[in-house]
Design a protein that fits this description.
Elements: H1 5-15, H2 19-43, E1 52-58, H3 60-63, E2 75-83, H4 94-105, E3 112-117, E4 121-126, E5 131-139, E6 146-149, E7 153-156, H5 159-170, H6 177-180, H7 185-197, H8 201-214, H9 223-233, H10 240-257, H11 279-298, H12 302-313, H13 330-341
């Protein structure tokens, strides 16, 4: 069983969003926030009730499961919170709030290619290729916000709860109070810095899944679904290749029993796969992924093992690193397999 730990480490470095791109996103995000804040104040007239705006980044950027996609069209989700006390029947409609944000961004923004008003967010696409999604919320406090959905109206939805749910599984020390209590802002910033340093395995497994899906993106579920599937079926092991393979097996078994992905936070129980159209293609790809992983783990030759992983991950998977590693002897392979068997590295029969 060839040990490709150095190859997986390098692959993780390749697909993980770099610090330079991360800093670029933060600068662009902050500039966009300032623009929206200022222009919202300017455009708010007597015909509109003025609301204070607050911002909170969310999703994969905060959880550090964001990847560098093949086409470099990475993104950041930055929630906009209209702070007010109007009930849903008295406040402006979700469409009007979307319109306010689109107007605040404007069409005279040099770095922006276009602004798209989507159902659940406003998307700002930059000329450099990446984009920022702006979901819009209304709340008298951030713990119970309503999402402005242009099709379904106002929906209770709290992205901070999802971050907390994932980080509890990752055992990262995240606390919701970091975000909800302004006095703890410095602790939140320290956590964001520290969590980058401690790149725990579950984040890497999510990145591997997203990167695999990125090669087949038209047929694949979104990153949110991939993250939930991994978190619900995560199998911890000292080696990423075994942890990944076993997690895949458990995801497959779960989906074969019930092809669904229930949202763990508000709206709790929503099946995110209910409208997904490519069930059979996804299951077939998943089975191929598992088979490639099995073949790789049975190989004693690092180069041959690496080629099996490369079938799933594409040319980004750095097999050139494996060329310098020695083959695993039959005796050591047997010993490793026997030792790992107690923790079920080969998983269940498909």
């Amino acid at each position: 069983m060839a040990n490709l730990i150095s190859v997986f480490n390098e692959y993780n470095r390749i697909i993980r969003l770099s610090e330079s791109k991360r800093k670029e996103l933060i600068i662009v995000r902050d500039n966009l926030r300032v623009r929206i804040q200022k222009r919202h104040q300017q455009f708010t007239g007597t015909s509109r009730t003025y609301h204070e705006l607050e911002f909170q980044s969310q999703g994969s950027f905060v959880m550090d499961t964001i990847i560098s996609p093949v086409h470099d069209d990475y993104d950041l989700d930055d929630g906009i919170y209209f702070i007010g006390r109007l009930s849903s029947d008295l406040r402006p409609t979700p469409e009007e709030f979307h319109k306010m944000i689109v107007e605040a961004i404007g069409d005279d923004y040099d770095h922006v290619e276009k602004v798209i008003d989507k159902i659940t967010c406003v998307r700002v696409i930059y000329k450099s290729g990446f984009h920022i999604d702006l979901p819009i919320y209304y709340a008298d406090n951030k713990e119970c916000p309503d999402l402005a959905n242009k099709e379904k109206g106002w929906i209770l939805s709290n992205p901070i709860e999802f971050i907390d749910w994932f980080e509890q599984i990752a055992r990262s020390g995240f606390q919701k109070a970091f975000i909800y209590e302004s006095a703890l802002y410095d602790k939140y910033q320290n956590w964001l810095t520290d969590v980058r340093k401690k790149d725990v395995q579950i984040r890497r497994i999510v990145r591997y899944m997203k990167s695999w899906g990125d090669l087949r993106r038209e047929e694949m579920p979104c990153g949110l679904i991939m993250t939930i599937l991994v978190a619900n079926n995560y199998y911890e092991h000292e080696r990423d290749d075994i942890a990944l393979k076993e997690t895949l097996v458990q995801i497959h078994a779960t989906l074969r029993k019930s092809f669904s992905c229930k949202r763990p936070t508000t709206p709790v129980g929503e099946d995110l796969l209910a409208s997904y159209k490519n069930r059979y293609a996804f299951m077939n790809y998943l089975e191929q992924f598992i088979e490639n992983a099995k073949q790789a783990l049975m190989e004693t030759d690092p180069q041959k093992a690496c080629k099996y992983w490369q079938k799933s991950f594409g040319e980004k998977f750095p097999c050139q690193i494996a060329s310098g590693q020695a083959k695993t002897s039959v005796s050591s392979t047997s010993a490793l397999a026997a030792g790992a068997a107690t923790s079920r590295p080969w998983g269940k029969d498909l």
